[in-house]
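Q: I'm writing up a methods section and want to include an example of the input and output format. Could you take the sequence below and give the corresponding predicted structure tokens, formatted cleanly so I can copy it straight into the document?
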Amino acid sequence: MRMVSPVSGIRCRQIEESDVDAVAALLTRGFPNRNRQFWRHALDQLTRREPPRGLPKYGYLLETGGAPVGAILLICSTMRTGDTVAPRCNLSSWYVEPAYRAYAPLLVSHALRHKEVTYLNVSAAPHTWPIIEAQGFSRYSDGIFVCFPALSRAPAGADVKVLDARLKPAVVFDPFEQDILRQHAEHGCISLWCATADRAFPFVFRPRLAKGCIPCAQLIYCHDVADFARFAGPIGRHLALRGRPIVIVDANGPIPGVLGIFRHGSKPKYFKGPQRPRLGDLAYTEYAILGV
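A: Here is the clean output for your methods example:
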């Protein structure tokens, strides 16, 4: 489907594989802190993914005269909430050339037109918060919890083994979550199981550098943040041995039992759509897939 502006000849359409080079050049102009190689890698990552039926592989672009003047990347996936499996899209890396900013709403409205989809905006800059709230987004995470999980006590009464996700646990585990761990490991994340005598609990972390120089890990996925608190000690020691003693977790307050600092208003997360995201689930977002 293509939307055409009768005023300027600008049209909005899905980004196709043949557009990748031009979109990479456009985003390089829009985000001068990231080079063309970064955007080509990001788009290559999307090329490897297969989106849910009816949703775009890369996102949408605005074009005029055959040249893109605006683009928004979408990372589309299928996620489970309780017993429901539903589509979810992370809006990422939105840019429109200055001369065409008046047509930015055309791009956004096209990207948000799927009513059955839950949309995430997980890296909105502070100056855009009023804009995305006006677009109907609601905040579901008010800040981040920066913690030192290795200093937490081992869970009482539980013999816990931290296993690389490539190993199949000898106890009960969820095959859907096994796929999440495997796919995120392929994108450079740290995927692991915390296995007790009864079952295996999934965790995914993205290695990061806070402030550009401090090694840390960002929690990308777990079944429940309470699981992270329960296994913080073993997980923290596992990550610390790999040079990542600090862990960043989306939160609405301090996490009981874990030593750390809650930073209210830092990196809030937004959503729009039928399924309110839960904390501890950034699976298949730009953090995990693109490494932003």
